[in-house]
Fold these 2 entries.
Entry 1:
Amino acid sequence: MMGFSFEKMNIEGAYIINSFFSEDNRGSFVKNFEKDIYEEHGIHFECNEFFISHSTKNVIRGMHFQLYHPQAKLVSVISGKVFDVIVDLREESSTFGQWRGVYLSNENRTSLYIPRGCAHGFMSLSDDSIVSYNCDGKYDKETDTGILYCDPDIAVEWPIMDIKNAVLGSRDKKLMTFREFKSNCKFTY
């Protein structure tokens, strides 16, 4: 039996979280979240919405965020493997405009906590990746937007030989650049 562990990332407020895990003759049990334990580590999280995505290999989803009352997110992989990325969009942050990536899978049982004011996206590395998202904060459709996954100023290093082989939704192909974000957008907390 393994308990929770929390690793601070070098983006303020972001954590890599190893989940509670237990295994016996029946199979295994994983717990991704327990409010009191998270709060002991400085993470105050209230789930307002929960959803699951299914993605085939080389699908990129993101880099999403909302401007009005940005949401914090807790992301885990139920099945498969993804390269999960956050981009710090908080102007006051020392890592503003920087990205960090982490591999999440059902095998490593790792979750990613993404603080408010960061964009989030991932690339599926499996034929069928099932990703769960818990979001803290009310969803605001009007200000739900994102940064282009291949923005040269952010320069995410996606783990794919040729980024032209990435599979994207029509919305994600039209997201703004980082320069457009800096010129036109402000978060309202």
Note: Helices lie at 35-40, 170-173, 178-184.
Entry 2:
Amino acid sequence: MKIIDPQELQLQPFQLLDQTWALLVAGVERPNPMTVSWGGFGTLWNKPMVTLYVRPTRHTFHLLNQHSECSLNFLPEQHRQALNLCGSRSGRDIDKWEKSGLHPLASETIAVPRVQEAFLSFECRVLAWQDFDPSRFLQKTIEKNYPNQDYHRIYWSEALAVWLAE
């Protein structure tokens, strides 16, 4: 993999998140990979940003609140089973690295690792967060995504480094 300037990255964000999925890694002492398919990319405060959404019921939520760095990692299709595992099991209960066969890889700009098997990785620092307020949903159909009323926290994260497979 090679490191590139975030401004040079060209991608299809809707396909990438919704279809490919990603592993969000948070935590320093015992980093935890969690599968995500919601998020966004853009510019905010004149910085390249990655927007992440995490429910308060997830182990990763607590890890992000303890340490405001994370990596976002996109894996080739042959790792779909690992993505399924990391999205359906809690890092509170198992070591997802061991169970999935994936490997942590040291990041250059943050203390949280990337995923060695990724073809695209972002090293991120959270700059701000806000909890979804359901009273602000303009389309009531959004509520069906929250049968347990566990509304996501939104994390606005600066992309400090981007790694892309050569």
Note: Residues 80-88 form the longest helix (9 residues).
